[in-house]
Specification:
Strand content: 25-35%
Structural class: alpha+beta
Order of helices and strands: HEEHEEHEEEEEEEEEEEEHEH
Mean pLDDT: 84
Low-confidence stretches: 3-7, 20-30, 36-55
Shape: elongated
Oligomer: single chain
Distance between the termini: 163 Å
């Protein structure tokens, strides 16, 4: 074998060996992994999974640490409840309305969330489609309120009592089922429109002073800690801070027919039903 032939064979072997070595080096380097796909949120938009892990939802404060006001059952006072009959037009209320209350700090915070003004308003609130005027009263003084995005937030004071003043603005008899913190003020049970309410004569004004204890006694409404509220003692503190009204109009036609029937019955009454 000539010298030139030997050199060519040696060069070919070297080139093949280098090619194999480069191929093995290239195959050992993996390409970079693609970025993870975005995660769809429940609202249908894009959500950053890493940001979500770093910013969990704030848990609710324990009951004893909840800020703001709830309604307690204060001192007992005399308030006679007289039974009055009213025939509702329907089992469904003619109007349902509500408004909120809190201390000044909490009321301002709610206004800021709703995007309203912190200008205080005085006077009563129009409620139930203008059938009623409603206010929270303390010895004749009306608590002020804020207004924001259709909400009304009355500004209360811790330790102070209040009454709920109801004014019937219509020429009809109305029944008002009233709730404070989700509790029916007349029965002390979890509130429902189907329960009994207060009957107001046309243009009548009546002040509900507190939770009815019996036919002649109430325990006055008093602003205090959420943990000490009546709702909290009954396990319903999630509804603290709201006052609700379910309003029923009287079925005047049925009431008139019932009244006439009573008069026919009385007309036939005998002064001496036992003859001798």
């Amino acid at each position: 074998m000539s010298t030139h032939t030997s050199l060519r064979l040696l060069l070919s072997v070297v080139l093949i060996a280098c090619s194999v070595w480069l191929s093995s080096c290239t195959s050992s380097i993996s390409p970079p992994a693609p970025p993870p796909p975005p995660v769809m949120s429940s609202e249908g938009g894009l959500s950053n999974r890493y940001a979500s892990k770093m910013a969990p939802a704030t848990p609710a404060a324990p009951l004893a640490e909840r800020p703001g006001l709830g309604t307690q059952a204060g001192r007992e006072t005399y308030s006679q409840l007289v039974t009055s009959r009213l025939i509702r037009k329907s089992t469904v209320p003619d109007a349902v309305d509500s408004f909120h209350y809190n201390d000044e700090k909490g009321a301002k915070a709610m206004v800021n969330i709703l995007g309203g003004s912190t200008t205080q308003h005085s006077g009563s609130l129009n409620a139930a489609g203008d059938r009623l005027k409603v206010s929270l009263q303390h010895y004749g003084r009306t608590y002020p309120h804020y207004e924001a995005s259709g909400r009304r937030i009355v500004i209360g004071e811790a330790g102070q009592s209040y009454g709920i003043r109801l004014e019937n603005r219509t020429k009809k008899r109305l029944e008002v089922v009233l709730s404070v913190d989700g509790i029916n003020t007349m029965s002390g049970k979890t509130a429902s429109p189907s329960q009994r309410g207060y009957v107001l004569e046309p243009k009548e004004t009546y002040e509900v002073e507190g939770y009815q204890k019996n036919q002649n006694t109430v325990r006055v409404f008093q602003f205090g800690r959420v943990a000490d509220s009546v709702a909290a003692t009954k396990g319903g503190a999630n509804n603290v801070g709201v006052i609700g009204l379910a309003v029923f109009e009287e079925d005047e036609a049925r009431a008139k027919a019932e009244l006439q029937q009573e008069q026919f019955l009385r007309n036939g009454a005998s002064a001496f039903p036992v003859s001798r």
